[in-house]
From TrEMBL, chains A, B:
Cross-referenced Pfam families: PEP-utilizers (PF00391), PEP-utilizers_C (PF02896), PPDK_N (PF01326)
UniProtKB keywords: ATP-binding, Kinase, Magnesium, Metal-binding, Nucleotide-binding, Pyruvate, Transferase
Enzyme Commission numbers on file: 2.7.9.1
Domain (PEP-utilising enzyme C-terminal) ranges: 520-868
Required co-factors: Mg(2+)
Name of the protein this chain belongs to: Pyruvate, phosphate dikinase
Entry-linked PANTHER family: PHOSPHOENOLPYRUVATE DIKINASE-RELATED (PTHR22931), PYRUVATE, PHOSPHATE DIKINASE 1, CHLOROPLASTIC (PTHR22931:SF9)
Keyword Repeat among record annotations: no
A single MF term (Gene Ontology): ATP binding
Lineage of the organism: Bacteria, Bacillati, Bacillota, Clostridia, Peptostreptococcales
Assigned protein family: Belongs to the PEP-utilizing enzyme family.
Residue span(s) of domain PEP-utilising enzyme mobile: 421-502
Gene3D superfamilies: 1.20.80.30, ATP-grasp fold, A domain (3.30.1490.20), ATP-grasp fold, B domain (3.30.470.20), Phosphoenolpyruvate-binding domains (3.20.20.60), Phosphohistidine domain (3.50.30.10), Pyruvate Phosphate Dikinase, domain 2 (1.10.189.10)
């Protein structure tokens, strides 16, 4: 006969498909010798058989269950339904995959009008016994008999009103007895038979309810959406209840095997004597530090210490343990890997390697790369935070925490900053013109835009805190206020931003600066040993470059030349260039820009030493450099001695419906080759000068953006090589350089074999590639992407994590086609995804050469790359 | 020894790689017995050998050339360089592929100070002889010796000034003798040796010049861009000159074997006695009808008639023939398939099938499908056109010709139309709000936007003439004028538009209405026999539907529901729906729209009978339905009794940076499911009513736009099926229907296997797919696409012709993946490309089920589909 029921002692983690996650876990803990309250599990196969048998529990199964129940009575010395020392159990569903929508836990099953008295006796606490009983009836009514919970709550509330008490805890045992009777009446009224006093019947009904919950509509929808097969079925786990409130030799507590806040190797936790877990939660009594248990119950304490070591050795990680002591007997209710701060995570990982508990490889896997962000940015003061009021939430666009006075224009921020104020820039959205205000601010809040909007991208690049797309923030620039629902904030009011969560607070919350410990450096060093991917950075300025080097960047994967154009001293020249009517006028303006760009490149090259630097030629549409407000146009006209009408005409000519898909990238060079000519000249002359002056051998990688067709690249490459050849000839200094292209237009991916004929490297621009592959504008998608994620249509915002099935497929095609044409093609990624761990792993799997990300994400990428290499088990050292 | 020179009599079309296009063609004509002036061709292999030998003509080659030259002297009875009856030749380059940038033709080679006298004698025309001589020297100087042409022109101009004459023709033979001497002096001065009097040297120098032109920079660039291998080389063809001006038994003329204007089977052409071709061009003497030659030279005439028949039989097509009679001897200089009007093309094709000259299959291949457009739209009166002034040129966005008074707002157009005026709507760009003005206009001119801009798409749908993206047109709406450079046009001024060419004219040019002959119907019937693709139409109204049926549509491939929303009576309700703050308000507005949409669908279904109708659910972003100008918003607020502020907020909330990639398509349904619910209800209820009332079995195909991910489609499909099921149950009438999706987002193509799990049909939206695959906004690309085509980076605007390598590759992937999941998946295309012949062929090759295009393109698609089937030789009947 097939075995449908397993005692915890018979199982192990390997039987998860049969016992479900919970059952297997309890069996595993039992197997390694933990004093887990005993119990048994009805298998998933029993669930399937139940459906085969048209939802009837068959006799053999019932017998097997009762057999195990009697083992349980035997080992516990308690009896099911007993009036003196009743055995009570919990009943839980347990599928292989955790699945919301299925039946919740039922606690204290086995209580009836008799055994409740037993419970009162053994706990010496009548109130507790009846509270447990009325809760059990309510839960049973709800999840087994499907009686609306509110029906019970109504009666409860009524009683509280009658007794004029506010909290459940203020009800007496008389009240609870009364409620118990009332609840039983509700059940009788609703299902036309009495609440079952037969505890075995209670158990069978609960088991059936679990089986049935496998096929309730919510569970079915969840399975369909998550591709979980219907045939898996659910197991049912029945476990003995234990009580920490059976007098002064009983108690309950929670402990971490190490300090979850800083990682110190010292037991950390608290306990309460003669109490149940919920007493800790209720906060009526103050728990004691775990170490105090040693005085009260040294045996239990020592046993616990021993178990902690056992658990750390077994799970090879810091554990978060719930325990109960029932009449001197220690029970472990639950153990799991403990949550911890990043700081603690690193310290614990490094310590455990020192202790020989885990290998370096395992240590590396212990820290969530995303978490590293916490270490690199300021955080809020814990105490201040407790009293802070969240006024709204936007997108966590750039990490860190900051507080400051609000200003609505970049100019005002700059002014505030120069008079020593901390200023937060609040905008509908930012645009390149706002750069100086962004630099001068301590944080940025926008009402629109997504995770890759201008504000988000620029802030991340600067390592500056930013909350973007906070849709509830209604800005009225004219009145210099913003509203959130009914709250009004004026210019100069303080707010605080949490860039890690997107929370916006009113008032100031102090911040603490990050400190990178020695363990951090050790840990990152280990990560570097394991990764195959190189890590570069996206940096446009010498300052960014230096920051990135400190964080371990091995080169620049993306230097955006346009950001250099926005500098105060340059923008007038850039505008003059754009407003030129003839090629001669344009060249004259470009001649003025040349020495400035050359100096920029020289500084960046010098900062990077001989590490590779990829420079992207001008990308954004020209209208981004022009003002759009009437007032600003008039000012510009006056300043440049060009007629208002003329500027107005150019602005209107350059206006685009969909600038994202407009006249930008290499398309500019096809219309105005002289712009790229100037930029290439600046790049190569910078390299020539550095070679002459310092003997530095710079090999610039010149990157052409937005290529979708080989001939575009050829046209631009012709311009580049001609320009370079002339400089080399004129200067007599030979400079090696590469010409490559972004792969950011779907067509480039699809025709990568063609494009690789002339591209010496590819760099995936996954921001734009995602925009075009999905047809999502990253600036507009905020309006619906949240809904998509909420409704489970998208698992994750594809601008945050590479969409492997769509965008990733195109990347794969591009890599395959590209390498078919050019086996040694160098391939990297410089989109925002380059600093997101899951995406970094995907890049590793695609066998890219490097990922490039903003400076503050370099450590994240380093660790993610190491984890990817380990997870994908190739080229391990 | 290898043979490097072929007499015309030795060659044929098969030797094209050796003789080049021109040489092979002349050999072929000689082979079939035409009296072509004799000559010979130096092969492409000789050219390659010339480069192997470091660009030196070797003796064996020279001997071979002179050998053939002496054969030529023999057969012609003339001698090279002779003072009495000189042999003159033309020298031409001839590569396998026609190639701009290579050497032009040199005429009259063999003239020197002696033979010029001979030419004067035999033509009895000294002026002609010296004119030929000075032209030859100039041409030789230019193309062989690379002396700037302007140097000769300067001398010529100076002489004309001195003699106070305006035209070359007014110079006397003395003048020409003088110029001959001057030209020789220029050459001596420039190249430091005299103009070669040795005619053999002239010949060798010309041959070398042709060889060298193979490797000049322009030719090299052209080859690189067009993937023409460098090793092909060029041939050189040397042909005897003949003269039609050797007295009254000589002459020259041009003739078509049938009438190129209407196709009538009657020789059509003209000739001049004692004249050269250029005399005809100069227009000094009036040529006679070809039939008059019968009286003057019956032998030559009869011979010519005979040759015409021979040529038609050989080339199996109407021929355009150039001939010269030299002293009674008829020579054919050139014959080619004659250009003809569409009308003539169809009549000739049908006649030739009747005559047994060609098969139906061949007849179908004779008409350019694109040309059919001419037949379906008005054209300009030929006479009026001659005096018309083109003021600018835009994109030929929608076929036809029209004239009318200009107006700058839709309202003014409507007013003008109702008072009986023909009005042309002139706009920066049109938007959906302009629809009524577009309907009331006779033509549309826009300053911006491309071939698939709103104006273009809507105009084509209406079969209305439209010129789009005329960038030179600067509109000043406030002053009600537009400027083109310095010309100013005021409201009410007449202009005329040619939608086939994009030309814009000032003033009125009368138009003629199209007439479809019986042959058109016969011809299209033949096409229908051969095609495999079904042809559907894009139609949103019963009127469009009827027009398309007349043109042979077999169903509707795209019915856009949003156009129905813009109707005057509906837009207020639509706006109320959009401005709703609660779902209840929105549903109330939708309830008002329901009966209107239901009626629309009913009428369209009824017009189509039981032919398939694909209805696309709402696609555009909601802001398209709202006003954006302050004034309009205020008016709306007043009309709807909603606060100005509230509307303003919604408008600003809905504003998008890149609406193309924004909140539209099925994304709307994910946020507002009730909109699609209403539309589906309208569709199905319409079908139910028609079944009840008329017994019509409509099977609606419900199409979900902008799907990029299976779960999007699943979400929407759930809404659809639930809605339909309810109606079917309530009404008791069973309606079959299909749910499918557009494939217009690259991600949909890449994940088509997934999407086909829930899509019962695919319809390629190649407009959007092209936009996203290239990253080109169709509304903005006008600014650079022309440059792309001009610079040969794009062979063709991808919005006009499917880009097979990129967009086409994605389509192929989608078809393959889609059919892998669902073998019987129905696949069509409903983008603008569905009516473009090259794209239709591609759809045939992809084995799509149908193409769908605007009503006026249905005949084009029918013919293109037939040609595709024939070209790709499958399923021929």
């Amino acid at each position: 006969m097939k075995k449908f029921v397993y005692d915890f002692m018979e199982g192990s983690m390997d039987l998860k498909p049969l016992l479900g996650g919970k059952g297997a876990n309890l069996a595993e803990m039992t197997r390694i010798g933990l004093p887990v309250p005993s119990g048994f599990t009805v298998t998933t196969e029993a669930c399937n058989e139940y459906y085969v048998k048209n939802t009837v529990l068959w006799d053999e199964l019932k017998q097997e269950i009762f057999q195990h129940l009697s083992y349980l009575e035997e080992s516990s010395g308690k009896r099911f339904g007993d009036i003196h020392n009743p055995l009570l159990v919990s009943v839980r569903s347990g599928s292989v995959f955790s699945m919301p929508g299925m039946m919740d836990t039922i606690l204290n099953l086995g209580l009836n009008d008799e055994s409740v008295e037993g419970l009162a006796k053994v706990t010496n606490n009548e109130r507790f016994a009846y509270d447990s009983y009325r809760r059990f009836i309510q839960m049973f009514g709800d999840v087994v008999l499907h009686i609306g919970k509110y029906k019970f709550d109504t009666v409860l509330e009524k009683r509280k009103q009658e007794k004029q008490v506010e909290n459940d805890i203020d009800l007496t045992s008389e009240d609870l007895k009364f409620l118990t009777d009332e609840f039983k009446k509700i059940i009788e009224r609703e299902v036309k038979h009495k609440f079952p006093q037969d505890v075995k019947q209670q158990l069978l009904m609960a088991i059936e309810a679990v089986f049935k919950s496998w096929n309730n509509p919510r569970a079915k929808v969840y399975r369909r959406i998550n591709d979980i097969p219907d045939h898996l079925g659910t197991a049912v786990t029945i476990q003995m209840m234990v009580f920490g409130n059976m007098g002064e030799t009983s108690g309950t507590g929670v402990a971490f095997t190490r300090n979850p806040s800083n990682g110190e190797k010292k037991l950390f936790g608290e306990f309460l004597m003669n109490a149940q877990g919920e007493d800790v939660v209720a906060g009526i009594r103050t728990p004691q530090e775990i170490q105090a248990l040693n005085e009260k119950m040294p045996d239990a304490y020592n046993k616990f210490i021993e178990l902690c070591e056992l658990l750390e050795k077994h799970y090879m990680d810091m554990q978060d343990i719930e325990f109960t002591i029932e009449r001197g007997e220690l029970y472990i209710l639950q153990t799991r890997n403990g949550k911890r701060t990043t700081n603690a995570a690193i310290n614990i990982a490094v310590d455990m390697v020192d202790e020989g508990l885990i290998s370096k490889k395992e240590a590396i896997m212990r820290v969530d790369p995303q978490q590293l962000d916490q270490l690199l940015h300021p955080t809020f003061d814990e105490e201040d935070l407790k009293n802070a009021e969240v006024i709204t939430r936007g997108l966590p666009a750039s990490s860190g925490a900051s507080y400051g006075k609000i200003y609505f224009s970049p100019e005002d921020v700059v002014k505030a900053n120069s008079s020593g104020e901390k200023a937060i820039l609040v905008r509908h959205e930012t645009s390149p013109e706002d750069i100086e205000g962004m630099v001068a601010s301590v944080g940025i809040l926008t009402a629109r835009g997504g995770m890759t909007s201008h504000a988000a991208v620029v802030a991340r690049g600067m390592g500056k805190c930013c909350v973007a797309g906070a849709g509830e923030v209604k800005i009225d620039e004219a009145s210099r206020i913003f509203k959130v629902r009914d709250q009004v904030f004026h210019e100069g009011d303080y707010i605080s931003l949490n860039g890690n969560t997107g929370d916006v607070y009113s008032g100031e919350i102090k911040t603490e600066n990050p400190q990178l410990t020695g363990n951090f450096q050790i840990f990152m060093g280990w990560a570097d040993q394991y990764r195959r991917l190189k890590i570069r950075t996206n940096a446009d300025t010498p300052r960014d470059t230096k920051q990135a080097l400190e964080f371990g960047a091995e080169g620049i994967g993306l230097c955006r030349t346009e950001h250099m154009f926005f500098d105060d001293t340059r923008i007038p020249v850039v505008r003059r260039m754009i407003l030129s009517r003839t090629i001669e006028q344009r060249k004259k303006a470009l001649d003025l820009l040349l020495p400035m760009q050359r100096q920029d490149f020289k500084e960046i090259f010098e900062a990077m030493g001989e590490k590779p630097v990829t420079i992207r030629l001008l990308d954004p549409p020209l209208h981004e450099f022009l003002p759009h407000e009437e007032e600003d146009i008039r000012a510009l006209a006056k300043g440049m001695e060009i007629s208002y009408q003329q500027i107005k005409e150019v602005v209107s000519d350059l206006k685009e419906f969909n600038p994202m898909l407009g006249h930008r990238g290499c398309r500019l060079a096809i219309t105005y080759p002289e712009i790229y000519q100037m930029q290439v000249q600046a790049i190569i002359e910078a390299a020539v000068e550095l070679k002459k002056e310092k003997g530095l051998e710079v090999v610039p990688e010149i990157m052409v953006p937005l290529v979708g067709e080989l001939k575009e690249l050829q046209y631009v490459k012709d311009i580049i090589t001609k320009t370079v050849d002339e400089i080399i000839e004129d200067s007599g200094v030979d400079i090696k350089y590469l010409v490559g292209t972004m792969i950011e237009v779907p067509r480039a991916a699809i025709t990568a074999d063609e494009i690789a004929k002339d591209a010496e490297f590819f760099s995936f621009g996954t921001n734009d590639l995602t925009q075009m592959t999905y047809g999502f504008s990253r600036d507009d998608a905020g309006a619906f992407i949240k809904e998509y994620v909420d409704k489970n249509i998208l698992e994750k915002d594809p601008f945050q994590r590479i969409d492997r099935d769509g965008v990733g497929k195109l990347m794969e095609i591009a890599v395959d086609l590209g390498k078919k044409t050019r086996a040694d093609l160098k391939i990297g990624i410089c989109g925002e995804h380059g600093g997101e761990p899951n995406s970094v792993e995907f890049c590793h799997m695609l066998n890219l050469d490097y990922v490039s990300c903003s400076p503050y994400r370099v450590p994240i990428a380093r660790l993610a790359a190491a984890q990817a290499a380990i997870n994908n088990k190739d080229k391990l050292k």
